Amino acid sequence: MSELSRVVVVLNPNSTGDGPSNARGLRDELDGVVDVELVETQHAGHAEDLARDAVRQDPGTLVVSASGDGGYHEVVNGVFDAGRGMAAVLPSGNANDHATAVQERPLGEAIRAVVGGEPVTRMDLLEVSGAGRRRVAHSYAGVGITPVAAAALNEHDLDAVKEAQLVVRAFWRYRPLTITHDGNDISIDSLVFANIDRMAKYAQLAEGSAPDDGRYETLLIPHRSKLRLVLDFTRVLRGAHPVRSRSEPYEFTTHTPMPLQLDGEVFHVDAGSSVTVRCLPRALRTVL
């Protein structure tokens, strides 16, 4: 008997991207295979509530986010918070890093296979807690210039020259951050925690990393100079910057307020906040 009893597709009706049309296409493709319901978000954060309510109503629900990585972030948190159900992404954004990294076949084909008896897949999640907040990330979390610059590139459809200009502006305005880790104060330009091997379409983090291995990768760029930062960022784009694979939690304390990016979504962390990042092995049930 299949673990999947129905599909709920969450979409933003005001999206200028492919989400609404992709959602309708998936519904038509699965007609006669499994019940599919389309639900529309009304405001920021609504996808998380819709996902949580859907799986609480029926634990066999697969909640599909017809969006990019940010929309999927909300759906994953709703499903995770409910402690049941499944989540998947129907890639409809600009970068679609998560889908590119993990999906080996079209989502409709994968859903058909699970309805036919194929088991669902379990994947790791990153848990980020601190400052009175607890979130999970399906792909990456980060502070500093790398997630900021990568997200800026992700938001624009530019040619190579304009992309370079955008990066230069972001780097020129950037100021280093200071954290305390293992009792040491560290001035950093970037700190990224990754569950997949890429970030925001351009940045290559760790070739060969797997989102179900019970580990995550950390990329740390200490502060040196503007020129060195640009060189380090180009190494990240080429996948040449060293990373460290770890299974143990990473704890740090912020010295100044700083933006924290989770799957492209931005959350602000106050100065003096203690933040812990850990891997939650096989915490998400999904369809690939």
Automatic annotation (TrEMBL):
UniProt family annotation: Belongs to the diacylglycerol/lipid kinase family.
Pfam families: DAGK_cat
Essential cofactor(s): Mg(2+)
Keyword Transferase: yes
Kinase among keywords: yes
Protein name (database record): Diacylglycerol kinase family enzyme
Gene Ontology molecular-function annotations: kinase activity
Lineage: Bacteria, Bacillati, Actinomycetota, Actinomycetes, Kineosporiales
Residue intervals of the DAGKc domain: 2-132
Keywords attached to this entry: Kinase, Transferase
